[in-house]
Amino acid sequence: MSDDLVVCPSCEQEVPDGKFCKLCGKLLHESAPDSDREVSPDSTSIVEDLFADDDDLDEVSSSASYPDFNFTINGMDPESMAILFSEAELVGLNKDLDVLIYEISATRQALDLEHADKDLLVARAQSLRTAFDSTKARRSELRDIQGELPLTRALANLEKQVAKMKKLKEVEKKIDESVYEEEKTKLLLRIKSFRKDLKSSLKSSKQWLKGMKSESKRLRREKSRLEAKLKIGDISQTAYDTKMKETMKSLDIIERGSETLEKVVRLAEKTRN
User: Fold this and answer.
1) Residues 126, 150 within the same domain
2) What is the pLDDT of residues 98-111, one digit of tens each?
C-alpha cells in the first residue's frame, strides 16, 4: 500500500492511498473489471434489485396507547407486551364470543316458550348483550395492535441480509468486481449489526420468559388465596367468581404468550448456532 495521501471522492477526507477509504470504506479509485469476468452492462440494476427493500429495515410500528392486561412482566416494555399478549388474548376472546352468541340465541329461543319467565330471560338477554358488546370492543382494541417483537424483527432482518448475500454471490461474475466488493462489504456490516441485535433481543426475551414464569407463580398463589378466602367466608361467592375469572384469564394469556415467545427464542438460538 502506498503512503501517499489522496482525497476520498465519497467522504472528501484526506486518507492513505489504496483500494478502499480507511474512513468510510468506499472505493478510492474507479477500477476496470478483470478480463476473465463476464460483466453485465447493467451491474447497477442487479445491485439495486438486491437492495430494493432496504428502506424497510428496522421499521417499527408504534401505538399511542396500549391495552391493559391486569398484570405486568418484569423488564418487558409496554409495546412488546401489547404485541405478544394481544395475540394471546384474542384466542380466548374469540372463544368467549362464540359462547356468548350461543347463549344469546338460546335465550331468545327460551323467550318463545309458552311458560317462560319473560322478565328473567329479558334481563339475561340484556346482560349477555352487554357482555357481547364489551368483548367485541376489546377484540377490536387488540386487533388494532400492530408490530413485531424485537426478537422477531431481528431474526427477519438478519435472514433478509443473509439471503441477499447468497443472491449477491450468485451474480458475482455478472457485475463489476469493485461493485461486488462494495456491496459485499455493506452486507457483511449489516449482517454483523443484525447478529448483534439478535443476541441482545434474545437475551431480553429470555429475561421476559423468566418474568412470565414469576408472574404465573404469583397468579397461582392468588388463585389458592381466593379459594381459601371463600372457604373461610372472607369473600362472597360473587366476588370470588369475578376475581377468579380475572386471575384465570391472566394465567391463560401469559401461558399462551410464553408458548409463542419460546418458539421464537428456539428459532433464534438455532439461527445463532
Assistant:
1) yes
2) 999 999 999 989 98
